[in-house]
Design brief:
The protein is an alpha+beta fold and 745 residues long. It has 28 helices and 26 strands. Helix 5 crosses helix 6 and helix 14 runs antiparallel to helix 26.
C-alpha cells in the first residue's frame, strides 16, 4: 500500500522496490534516490523491499527516479492503483523464475561436480565441464553479471559484484587451462580447473536467496492479515437498487448494505437496522457491540446476526483499518538507530572485501611456493564468495518487522523502529488517570436524599432538567441514570450555567442548584451534617460528589465515579515486577487521585497537574537520567507524550494523542503496556543475536577463506563450501528473527 503525505520539506511517498538482493543493494538504492533532482531525503528498507522519498513535486519527476534505479538494476513501482499488489506479482514471478533457474543450474552442476571430484584425470572432463558450466554461469546465473555491470558503471558494488567476480575469475582461469593446458605443463605444473566451484557457487547462492525470500515473506504476515480484513467487494444502494461494486470504488455518502457474517468494508454511520458487530480487531474486547441508528461502524470488523444499512464516511486510506495498516507498514519500514550504523558498514563492506581479496591474492603469490598461483586464485575467489553482507543487512530489519507484526497481533501499534528499540530501556512509566487507569466513563454510584423529603418524583424531574441543560461531562452520567429510572423533565423558567461551579434553575416551585461544594458554599446553602459527612466519605473513596439543593438547603448528594479498569492493578504490578517505577499524573483533585492510586497499587501520584506541568515533570525525570514512557489518552496528555522517550496512547483516546504517540494500544487493557516493553526486550535481544552471528560469521569466515589455517594444518576452504556457508548465514538470521513469532509476551 503506497502512501503519500505532505511535509514541510515537500511530498513524502512510499514506493515498492524490486531487484534488491542484499544490504549493499539497499545502500545503492538509497544513494541513487538521495542524489536525484529535487529529493531532500530518502530511505530504504531491505527487509520490506520498500523505499520512501521526500521531494519537491515541481522539481522531481517520478519517472526519472524510476529510470535512475533501473540503470543500476532495480525498479521503482510508481503510478499503480495497487503498487503493493504489483510488487507482490513481480516478486512472485521473479521467485518462480529464480526457482526454475536454480533447479536447472543444479541439474547441470551435479555432473560437473561428479567429474571434478571423481574423474578429474579423465581426458574429456575439462571440456565437458566447460560446456556444462557456460549455461550455468551465463544463462541461469546471468543476473549476477548483469547487475554487477550496472553497479560498476555507476561506481557502485554489491553482493552481485562479489558473486560475478568470484565465479567469473574461476571460470576464466579454468577455461584458459582447458584451452591451453600446455602453458602449465611446460612449467611442470598440472592445469587445474575449477568449473565445479564456479557452477556450485551460483547454485548455492541462488538456493540461499530462494530460502531467504521465502523466509522474508513470512515476516510481513501481520500486514497481510490486516489487509485481509477488508472485503474485496461491497453491496451498495443505487437508485433504490442493490449493486455490487469493488470496495475501492466506494465513495463517501454511498449507502452500504451489510448482511450477517459479512465484514464491514469502510468506516461509516448506521442509517437503519440493528445488529451486533465483533470489533475485537480494533478494541481487543471479545464481546460484540450493539449497533443502532447513528452508531459508527469500522472497516475490518465483522457483522454478527443482524442486517443494517450504513452511510460510508471514511473510505480508502482514510479508514481506521487503513490507518492501522499504514502505521504498521511505516513502522516496519523505519530504521532502528542500530540499523543506521549497519547500513554504513554495509556500504563500505563490498569494496573492503574486494580489497581483502586482492591482498590475499598478492600475499599467496609471494608466499605460496610452487602452487602460489593456484592457491592465490582459490583463496581470493573464496574470500569473495564467503563475504556476504546479506546476513548483516537482514539482522535488524527482519527482527523489527517480526516484532512490529507481533505487536499488531497483540493490539499494540508501533509507529517506528526507534521506539521499539528504545522501549527496552524504560525504567519509569507515567500513567494518566482518566481513560488510562480508569474507564473514562463516569457513572452514578448512588443518589442519597436528605431525610424527610416527600415530593421525590418532582425533585428528580427538576434535577433531570437541570443536568440536561448542563454542558459538564458529569451531567451526562446523572441524566443517563435518571433516564434509566424513567424520570421525565419539567419546564424551567430560568437556567444559568456557572463556570467551574455548576448550574442554577428556576421552576414554578422555586430556585434550584446542582454542582460542586463551592457552589453550595457561595450561595450559603445549608447542608445536613450527616449528609456532609457522607459526601466527605464518598470523596475519599474516589467519587466525585455533586450536590443538588433548593434555596433552603441541600436535598441530595450524588456520587459519580470513573471506575478503575479491571486490568489496571494487574498491569501495574506486572510493570513493578519488571523493576519499572510506575506513577500517576492527573488533573483531578488530590482526594480522588489518592483513592485511585490506592486501588491501583501505586505508591506515587501527583494531583491537580496542568497539561504543561505533565510535560515539565517528564522532563525533570529525564534530567535525572530516567528513561520515561508516558501513557495517556487525551489532548491534555499530548505535550507529555511528545516529551517522553517512549509515548503510548490508548486507542480509544483523542486523535491528537494517537498522532503524537509512538505506540498506540488499540485495546483498553493496560496489560498491553508490560507486553509492549517485553516485546521490545525480546526484539532487541534478537537483533543483538543476529548482529553477533552476522559479524562473527565474517570475522571467522574471511580469514579462513583467505587461507589463515593453511600454515597450521594445510586447510584451504573450498569455494563451494564457502558458497553454502554464505547462503546459510542469511537463512539463519531470518529464521532467528521468525522465532519472535512464537514468543510469549
Amino acid at each position: 500500500m503506497a502512501s503519500e503525505t505532505l511535509t514541510h520539506k515537500g511530498t513524502r511517498k512510499n514506493f515498492p522496490v524490486t531487484g534488491m538482493t542484499c544490504a549493499g543493494c539497499a545502500v545503492s538504492v538509497e544513494s541513487m534516490l538521495k542524489s536525484s533532482k529535487g529529493v531532500s531525503d530518502a530511505g530504504v528498507n531491505f527487509a520490506t523491499q520498500t523505499a520512501w522519498a521526500e521531494y519537491n513535486e515541481e522539481e522531481t519527476n517520478l519517472a526519472e527516479l524510476q529510470k535512475s534505479l533501473q540503470s543500476v538494476g532495480y525498479d521503482l513501482i510508481i503510478d499503480e492503483e495497487d503498487p503493493s499488489a504489483k510488487q507482490e506479482e513481480i516478486q512472485l514471478r521473479n521467485y518462480q523464475e529464480s526457482q526454475r533457474r536454480t533447479i536447472w543450474a543444479a541439474a547441470l552442476s551435479v555432473p560437473v561436480v561428479i567429474l571434478g571430484m571423481f574423474f578429474m584425470n579423465f581426458p574429456y572432463t575439462p571440456w565437458i565441464s566447460l560446456l556444462l558450466t557456460i549455461p550455468v554461469l551465463f544463462w541461469f546465473g546471468r543476473n549476477f553479471f548483469i547487475n554487477a555491470w550496472k553497479q560498476a558503471s555507476h561506481g557502485k558494488a554489491n553482493m552481485d559484484t562479489l558473486v560475478a567476480l568470484s565465479t567469473g575469475i574461476a571460470f576464466i582461469f579454468s577455461a584458459f587451462n582447458t584451452l591451453h593446458p600446455e602453458f602449465w605443463h611446460s612449467k611442470g605444473h598440472h592445469a587445474h580447473v575449477y568449473f565445479e566451484a564456479a557452477s556450485v557457487i551460483i547454485v548455492f547462492i541462488s538456493l540461499g536467496k530462494l530460502l531467504e525470500d521465502r523466509a522474508k515473506s513470512n515476516t510481513s504476515s501481520a500486514i497481510k492479515k490486516l489487509m485481509g480484513l477488508q472485503p474485496k467487494t461491497v453491496k451498495v444502494l443505487v437508485n433504490g437498487l442493490e449493486e455490487e461494486i469493488p470496495t475501492g470504488s466506494v465513495v463517501a455518502g454511498n449507502i452500504i448494505i451489510l448482511r450477517p457474517g459479512e465484514k464491514v468494508p469502510v468506516d461509516g454511520i448506521v442509517v437503519s437496522g440493528t445488529t451486533y458487530i465483533d470489533e475485537s480487531m480494533i478494541t481487543g474486547e471479545p464481546v460484540p457491540v450493539l449497533k443502532l441508528k447513528a452508531d459508527k461502524v469500522f472497516a475490518g470488523t465483522v457483522n454478527q446476526k443482524g442486517s443494517l444499512q450504513f452511510k460510508a464516511e471514511k473510505v480508502g486510506s482514510e479508514t481506521l483499518l487503513a490507518h492501522i495498516i499504514k502505521m504498521v507498514q511505516e513502522a516496519q519500514g523505519s530504521k532502528a538507530p542500530v540499523q543506521k550504523l549497519v547500513d554504513k558498514v554495509a556500504g563500505i563492506f563490498v569494496p573492503t572485501v574486494i580489497v581483502i581479496s586482492i591482498l590475499t591474492f598478492i600475499t599467496w603469490m609471494f608466499l605460496g611456493g610452487e602452487n602460489a598461483f593456484t592457491h592465490a586464485l582459490l583463496t581470493s575467489v573464496t574470500v569473495l564468495v564467503i563475504a556476504c553482507p546479506c546476513a548483516l543487512g537482514l539482522a535488524t530489519p527482519t527482527a523489527i518487522m517480526v516484532g512490529i507484526g507481533k505487536g499488531a497481533e497483540n493490539n499494540i501499534l508501533i509507529k517506528d523502529a526507534e521506539s521499539l528499540e528504545l522501549a527496552h530501556k524504560v525504567n519509569t512509566v507515567i500513567l494518566d488517570k482518566t481513560g488510562t487507569i480508569t474507564e473514562g466513563k463516569p457513572e452514578v454510584n448512588a443518589i442519597t436524599w436528605a431525610e424527610g423529603i416527600s415530593d421525590l418524583a418532582s425533585l428528580k424531574s427538576i434535577l433531570y432538567s437541570l443536568e440536561v441543560y448542563s454542558e459538564h461531562p458529569l451531567a451526562e452520567a446523572v441524566v443517563k441514570n435518571l433516564k434509566e429510572e424513567g424520570v421525565n423533565s419539567t419546564e424551567l423558567k430560568f437556567f444559568e450555567s456557572i463556570t467551574a461551579r455548576g448550574v442554577k434553575g428556576i421552576t414554578g416551585t422555586g430556585e434550584y442548584f446542582a454542582g460542586n461544594r463551592k457552589l453550595i458554599e457561595e450561595n450559603n446553602l445549608m447542608i445536613d451534617p450527616i449528609l456532609n459527612k457522607y459526601a466527605e466519605d464518598l470523596q475519599e473513596q474516589a467519587n466525585t460528589v455533586i450536590f443538588f439543593a433548593s434555596s433552603k438547603g441541600v436535598l441530595a448528594v450524588i456520587a459519580i465515579a470513573d471506575k478503575i479498569k479491571t486490568s489496571s492493578k494487574a498491569a501495574i504490578q506486572a510493570l513493578q515486577k519488571m523493576n519499572i517505577e510506575v506513577l500517576m499524573l492527573t488533573g483531578d483533585n488530590a482526594q480522588t487521585a489518592a483513592a485511585i492510586a490506592k486501588q491501583a497499587g501505586l505508591n506515587e501520584f501527583h494531583a491537580e497537574v496542568l497539561p504543561s506541568q505533565k510535560a515539565d515533570y517528564v522532563k525533570k525525570l529525564q534530567e535525572k537520567g530516567k528513561v520515561v514512557a508516558m501513557v495517556g489518552d487525551g489532548i491534555n496528555d499530548s505535550q507529555a507524550l511528545a516529551q517522553a522517550d517512549v509515548s503510548i496512547a490508548m486507542g480509544k483516546g483523542s486523535d491528537i494523542a494517537m498522532d503524537v504517540a509512538k505506540m498506540t494500544l488499540i485495546t483498553s487493557d493496560l496489560q498491553s503496556i508490560p507486553k509492549a516493553l517485553k516485546l521490545s526486550r525480546k526484539t532487541v535481544a534478537t537483533i543483538r543475536q543476529n548482529l553477533f552471528w552476522a559479524f562473527i560469521y565474517n570475522v571467522i569466515g574471511i580469514p579462513v577463506a583467505a587461507g589463515a589455517l593453511y600454515a597450521f594444518n594445510g586447510f584451504l576452504l573450498d569455494p563451494m563450501l564457502a558458497g553454502a556457508a554464505m547462503a546459510l548465514s542469511s537463512v539463519s538470521v531470518v529464521s532467528n528473527s521468525l522465532r519472535l513469532k512464537a514468543a510469549q509476551l
